[in-house]
Amino acid sequence: MPAYPGVRRLLGAVLFLLAALAPARATPADDAAAVRIGVLAFLGTEAAIGEWSPVLRRLQAALPGHTVSLVQLDHRGLRDAAAAGEIDFLITNPGHYVELEAELGASRILTLDPGPPRAPERSIGSAVIVKAGNGALRTLADLRGRRVAVVSTEGFGGFQTIWRELAAQGIDPQRDFAELKVVGLPMTGVFEAVARGEADAGIVRSCLLESRAEWRTAFTVLGARSEPDFPCATSTRLYPDWPLATLRHTPPALAKEVTLALLAMSAARDGMEWAVPADYQAVHEMFRELQIGPYAYLREPTLMVLAERYWRWIAAFALLLAAWILYTVRVEHLVHARTAELRAALAAREALELRIRANQEQADHLARLSVLGELSGTLAHELNQPLATIANYAHSLIRRSDNGRLTDDAVREASGEIAGQADRAAGILGRIRGFAKKRAAVRERVAPGALVVEAVALFRGMLANAPEVSVDDTLPADAIVEVDPLQIQQVLLNLLKNGYDAARGLPPERQRLTVRIDEGKGDSAGHARIAVRDHGSGLDATARERLFEPFFTTKADGLGLGLSICRTIAEAHRGRLTVDEDAGGEPGCEFILSLPLAPSASEPPECRSDHAADR
Amino acid sequence: MLPTDEAVIHVVDDDAAFRRSLVFLLESVGWRVASHASAEDFLATQANSPDAPGCLVLDIRMPTMSGLELQERLRAGGALPPIVFITGHGDVELAVQAMKHGAFDFLQKPFKDQALLDAVATAVRRGAEDRSRHAQRDEAKARLARLSPRELEVARLVAQGLPNKLVARELDISEKTVHVHRQHVMDKAEVGSAAELARLMLRADPAALD
């Protein structure tokens, strides 16, 4: 975070302009002999120009065919010039070099040799200075919450090296200091700021303190390390000195010439000496620990950094996600609700169907009752007349016998009337019986199997929990009966219903019904036999005897008319309705409806007088 | 009451056989019986001999004119004889209605022969009593009808037991005039005393002396 980016950039631009105005300056494109060396002008104009002039002089001497120039740039300017190919060599601090090595492929060929006792690979460190006698500050850890003066936050020796040591103590200089005071160049400003009390501590390059006697007494170094062969107090580890590096486009031959020329420099003669390139691994380690420079990626991709950088996208995504979740939840909820509604509706309909079926059964029952009621009302009224008449005559005869008025005429009249009324009563009963035969005129040719299938379907449709009904039809396919299908179905329904009632409340396997259809033998030869078998509780002997009597019933709610009417119908069809005497040892009973088989359509109708005589 | 010569039992029933059995039964104990196949038939014969004593044995249900309608017709005509209704199965409501309209009794078929004979005998007796009560009333009314309005006024006061002097004061006439009117009343009404006159007037109208 440059404290004065504008100033720095302006400075860089001015330096570049000065360099460009130099008389020997030529563009790299049209002068292959030009050798441009970019130097980091970090220490300020007055120091930089002077500092690197030995190099310029040496190279100009060593490379007579070339025009050697120094281009002084700040961090950014140096990087841009290197990237654009405007310089052939660069001299910069170790940290910046490592960055450019990673980014632009800069490759060191020499390292500045500070001269004994310092070695090139251990020549740079930083010192944290505090006023001498400041007892509150003894170690680096004590810097937490203090005001600290620095030249800038970009410098290698002036900031990054001490940053590494502070980070090892868990201190983030950007965060944990009360104030990070950037005083700018020159570095002496740091001493002044600490001396004036504007800062509790200051960060300076190692050995700067030792360069002035008054500083040595006024300030002490915080967290000074013991580094062998290093003459100055340092608060940090030591790093290699500044390198001179080539770039990718630097001609190797030129690089070799420059290397040889500069290696030949000696401190005694030139005031500057270069050594073979040092190991910059220590700088790499520092960067890696701090996660800056080429290792900035280690710091950046943290969740917090991502969150800060992409918060709008994350927020939008979260919003979408929330909307989607909301939508999903709502859809799920609706599906649940609708499913529940549907289930409830289905249940309601099922209950309704059950009730309708129950009501239907009830209604059928009531209908039969009311028909019977009407029938019995009519029966009673009609029979009343002849019975009352007969009674009157009979009683009158007794009276007349008692009081001597009994004449032959009276006896004849009364007896005649009584006989007549008896006939009348018989006539009424005959009419009622005829009522049941009213529909007997309908005759259709149907297959017994078809009648049974239809009756079973009707039966199963009538009941909510209809039992299993198996049909076994062994009649030839062309077997036909001539019947009123409605009446026969009524009989079959009655038999199925009886079977169902007989096994009600028993386990399911005993509720099953069997309908067997075959051709009769012996007595019932020439008849189709439809046998309805149940596996219910069966009948006792008394019940079997009275089974077909009207008004006889074994059911609590029965009328006792079913089988009697069924037998009437069967007989009206010249057939028979019987109950099997021997149930085959199994529980339950079997009712057999036998109907005469009709001659096939081609045969002439047979004489039926013999059957009529049976009844 | 034992069957009498003059009493006639009218049997009205559309069922011929049953009607004949009723006739046969009633004749068994000596009643004179008239048989009618319908209510209309009965009304036709009744026109010829309106005031014969006896009773009606009437079927409550008949095709053209029901027993109830006939009863209503007779009541409207002022000559309601005692009626024994014969009802069929479940006709109790009709029977109740008939009783409310003055029927004497009802029998539900089938009934015991004795029940019918008892009902008929009682009905005939009740009819006879009604008839004699009606006859006495009519005769009393006829005798009183001979009196002039003034004589009727005098008669009412006399029957209440007032002496001539008080009657004269009441009517604001002379005692002599009262005496004359009183003589005429006794003659015309064929009574011999004030007490006899009072009984005659009460026979004609039970509320006459209130």
TrEMBL record, chain A:
<dbReference type="Pfam" id="PF00512">
    <property type="entry name" value="HisKA"/>
</dbReference>
<dbReference type="GO" id="GO:0005524">
    <property type="term" value="F:ATP binding"/>
</dbReference>
<keyword id="KW-0067">ATP-binding</keyword>
<keyword id="KW-0902">Two-component regulatory system</keyword>
<keyword id="KW-0808">Transferase</keyword>
<protein>
    <recommendedName>
        <fullName>histidine kinase</fullName>
        <ecNumber>2.7.13.3</ecNumber>
    </recommendedName>
</protein>
<keyword id="KW-0547">Nucleotide-binding</keyword>
<dbReference type="InterPro" id="IPR004358">
    <property type="entry name" value="Sig_transdc_His_kin-like_C"/>
</dbReference>
<dbReference type="InterPro" id="IPR003661">
    <property type="entry name" value="HisK_dim/P_dom"/>
</dbReference>
<dbReference type="Pfam" id="PF02518">
    <property type="entry name" value="HATPase_c"/>
</dbReference>
<dbReference type="Pfam" id="PF12974">
    <property type="entry name" value="Phosphonate-bd"/>
</dbReference>
<dbReference type="GO" id="GO:0000155">
    <property type="term" value="F:phosphorelay sensor kinase activity"/>
</dbReference>
<feature type="signal peptide">
    <location>
        <begin position="1"/>
        <end position="26"/>
    </location>
</feature>
<keyword id="KW-0597">Phosphoprotein</keyword>
<dbReference type="InterPro" id="IPR036097">
    <property type="entry name" value="HisK_dim/P_sf"/>
</dbReference>
<keyword id="KW-0418">Kinase</keyword>
<dbReference type="InterPro" id="IPR003594">
    <property type="entry name" value="HATPase_dom"/>
</dbReference>
<dbReference type="InterPro" id="IPR005467">
    <property type="entry name" value="His_kinase_dom"/>
</dbReference>
<feature type="coiled-coil region">
    <location>
        <begin position="342"/>
        <end position="369"/>
    </location>
</feature>
<dbReference type="InterPro" id="IPR036890">
    <property type="entry name" value="HATPase_C_sf"/>
</dbReference>
<keyword id="KW-0175">Coiled coil</keyword>
<keyword id="KW-0732">Signal</keyword>
From TrEMBL, chain B:
<dbReference type="InterPro" id="IPR016032">
    <property type="entry name" value="Sig_transdc_resp-reg_C-effctor"/>
</dbReference>
<dbReference type="InterPro" id="IPR036388">
    <property type="entry name" value="WH-like_DNA-bd_sf"/>
</dbReference>
<dbReference type="GO" id="GO:0006355">
    <property type="term" value="P:regulation of DNA-templated transcription"/>
</dbReference>
<dbReference type="Pfam" id="PF00072">
    <property type="entry name" value="Response_reg"/>
</dbReference>
<dbReference type="InterPro" id="IPR001789">
    <property type="entry name" value="Sig_transdc_resp-reg_receiver"/>
</dbReference>
<keyword id="KW-0805">Transcription regulation</keyword>
<keyword id="KW-0804">Transcription</keyword>
<feature type="domain" description="HTH luxR-type">
    <location>
        <begin position="140"/>
        <end position="205"/>
    </location>
</feature>
<keyword id="KW-0238">DNA-binding</keyword>
<keyword id="KW-0597">Phosphoprotein</keyword>
<dbReference type="GO" id="GO:0003677">
    <property type="term" value="F:DNA binding"/>
</dbReference>
<dbReference type="Pfam" id="PF00196">
    <property type="entry name" value="GerE"/>
</dbReference>
<feature type="domain" description="Response regulatory">
    <location>
        <begin position="8"/>
        <end position="124"/>
    </location>
</feature>
<dbReference type="InterPro" id="IPR000792">
    <property type="entry name" value="Tscrpt_reg_LuxR_C"/>
</dbReference>
<protein>
    <submittedName>
        <fullName>Two component transcriptional regulator, LuxR family</fullName>
    </submittedName>
</protein>
<dbReference type="GO" id="GO:0000160">
    <property type="term" value="P:phosphorelay signal transduction system"/>
</dbReference>
<dbReference type="InterPro" id="IPR011006">
    <property type="entry name" value="CheY-like_superfamily"/>
</dbReference>
<feature type="modified residue" description="4-aspartylphosphate">
    <location>
        <position position="59"/>
    </location>
</feature>
<keyword id="KW-0902">Two-component regulatory system</keyword>
